[in-house]
Structures are given as structure tokens and as C-alpha cells.
Amino acid sequence: MLGTNYYLTKIIEAFIIGFGVAYLFGPISIKLAHKLGVIDTPRDARRVHKKPIPRFGGMSIFMGSMAAMLIPAGMNANIKVAMIGGALMYLLGIWDDIKDIKPIVKFGGQVLIASLVYFLGIRITFIGSYLVAFEGTQAHLILSEGVAYLITVFWIVGITNAVNLMDGLDGLAAGSVAIMSLSLAYIAYIHGTRLGSMPVCIALVAVAAGCLGFLPYNFSPAKTFMGDGGALYLGYMLAVLSVISPLKRATVVGALVPMLTLAVPIFDTVMAMLRRALKHESIMSADKGHLHHHLMAAGFGQRRSVVIIYGIVGIMGEVAVLISRELYKDAFFLFMIAFLYLCIIMVPKKRAKGIKRIITQDTSDLEKEYFTEYLNYERERRRELREAAKAAAEAAAEAEEASPEDPEDNGDNNEKGTVE
User: Fold this and answer.
1) In the 3-class helix/strand/coil scheme, how is the chain assigned residue by residue?
2) For the chain, how many structural domains are there in total?
3) What is the pTM of this model?
4) Is residue 322 part of a domain?
């Protein structure tokens, strides 16, 4: 059995290779985007950027993470299957970046890739070990082939699209996925020697390294976007690697760890689907109701909005780590803090009537409210400045009138009177 030091060396190698390759491919992806015409032009109010930006940066993430998984030789059969599906998902995203395919076609491609991965052996086959065991016994509930297929495909496609929806601000998706990947990697590492999850740890570190190597080109102000190629690839890798991770004990750990780590994109996606359903719109339609849109509407700006979401993602990652170590009380309090922040972001500043209005709140309305408040604040501030300036001028005039006459002027006047 290979020791921890061996795998630690491989983890470090994977990080260095992934970061270095991704960083080197950043400028290459930008040049290639211009040659292929893969440019994101702001065509609607939903987009935050104001000028055309290349959107081929997913190539940097893909090349970096793939190289990091291949070279350190920490793979097993499941990791190889995950890489095959990742390559196909990346190609699907590239196709969408270049040809702008219909959402239903892209969704169908995701289902096909998830189905292929399932039949190649990566699947959720039982949930009994994810449930609470009584008095040390294990109550396994083996899923039928059809149910296992549906749950696996739903998980992979759902997380893939959840990460894709996060890609709305400069650096948001790349940084968040890096944090989530490192959280899952740490969990795999601390349980690795006992549960055999070191290959999964190396793969997750490779994904995080690819994101971090790309981030210098993507953080605000962005030089390039990852595009659907990068976003779909990252979402897929997170979903599949979290399924491979062998945290399958007779506790709630196995189910909660990936769900808590990915809680922010899951929460945002569920809210988006609920919001669009309540507004009688297609769940695939785009809108301005995501977490980052609410933060932008509140006036935080791109960088601060992204860092705020980083913080929430990091808290949820720590919650998952605590859950994996069965520190449930500590995890609960951290979870409540993160949930409180999410509620603060989503609930409108002005009191809303009913939960439906809170969920369907459009940030365009919020932007108008905040802009109106800003105008009122500026109007009041300038009025106070004018009143202060007027009061100062009146005080200066009164002081001038009350001051004694100049002695030299009095002398001149007296001399003039004497001469006369």
C-alpha cells in the first residue's frame, strides 16, 4: 500500500502542473478566440461587461487540469472514465461557444454524456449507507437499475448546469470551483489512506489548479471568459468526482458532503428554477435574479460581489469538512451563518409582501430602487452643502459689518475735512 507521503508528492506535482499549464495556455486561448471569432459581445442588460471579451478561456482550464491528472499517474479506472466524459463535455461546450446551439440540444448532449459515464461504471447505486444507521448496523437500500440511472444522470446534469449558471461575473465560477474542489480534495485526503480516495484527491486538486491558473486572466477586469466549454467541463468534473469519492459510511456523511460543498450553486439553481416557474417562464430562460445579480444591484461592484460569494462558498466547504469528521454541532452553526448571508442577499431591501415576491424579485427593480435612493441622497447632500455655504457667507458678511472701520481710512477722512 502506497504511503501518504507518496500521494502528498503527487498532489503537489498535480497542483504545480495544473497551475503552470493553465497559466501558459491563457494567452494562447485569447489569440485562438480572436482567430475563431469566439467573442462575447454584450447584447443585453443581463451581461455585466461593456465591451467584447474572448470566451475561449475554458481551453486553459481543460488543458491544465487534464495534464495534471495524466502526468502524476494517480489515476484509477473511474478517474479515466471521468476524464473521457470531461473531454466530451468540454467539446459540447466548445460547440455551443462557436455555434451557439439551442438549449435543448445542449441539454440533450449533457444527458447523453452523463448516460455514457453511467454505463461505463460511475453511478449512484445505493443510498442505504447515506442514511443514519441504528446501533452500528448498516441498512443498505439498493437502487434498481432505472432509479440509479435517473439519480446519477440528474446529479451530473444538475451540477453541470449549476456551475454554468454561476459564470456571470469575472472570476466567479473559476474561483468558486477552485474553493469547492479544494474542499472536496481535503476531505478525500484526510480519509484517503483508509478509504482509498487519494486518486480522487489528486483529480480534484488538478481541477482546482486549472481554475487558479486561469484566474489571473479572468478576475475583474477580465481579459477572457471561460465560455460554456470551461463552465460545463468544471461542473461535470465536480459532479462526477464527488460521486466517485468513497465516503460511503453508515452515516449521513456520504450524501451531505458533496451537497454541502456545492450548496451555493445548488441553491442558486433551485431558486432560479422556482423563480422562473412562479413567473410562468421557461426554466431555461435567462434572467437577472442570481446571487451575483443581487449583489451587483446592491452596489457592491464586481470584485466585492465575487469575494463575498467566495466567502460563502468557503464557509460551506468548511461545513462539509466538519460533517465528514462528524463534528455536527460545529458544522450546524457555520451552516446557519452561510444560510443567513444567502438570505440577506436574496431578500429585497424594502419589505416585500409574501414569499413569492421575494423569490421573483427582479434585480432591475432593485437597481431602480437603489439608484433612486442614491439620487435622493445626493440631492439631500447637495442641499445641505448649499445651505452650509449660504450660512457661511452670511456669517462672513455679518462679521465684516460688525468689524471697526480702518484707522487709516479715518485719518484720510479727517485730513480731507480739515482741508475743506
Assistant:
1) CCCHHHHHHHHHHHHHHHHHHHHHHHHHHHHHHHHHCCEECCCCCCCCCCCCEECCCHHHHHHHHHHHHHCCCCCCHHHHHHHHHHHHHHHHHHHHHHHCCCHHHHHHHHHHHHHHHHHCCCCCCECHHHCCCCCCCCCCCECCHHHHHHHHHHHHHHHHHHHHHHCCCCCHHHHHHHHHHHHHHHHHHHCHHHHCCHHHHHHHHHHHHHHHHHHHHHCCCCCCCCHHHHHHHHHHHHHHHHHHCCCCCCCCHHHHHHHHHCHHHHHHHHHHHHHHHHCCCCCCCCCCCCHHHHHHHCCCHHHHHHHHHHHHHHHHHHHHHHHHCCCHHHHHHHHHHHHHHHHHHHCCCCCCCCHHHHHCCCHHHHHHHHHHHHHHHHHHHHHHHHHHHHHHHHHHHHHHHHCCCCHHHHHHHHHHHHHC
2) 1
3) 0.76
4) no
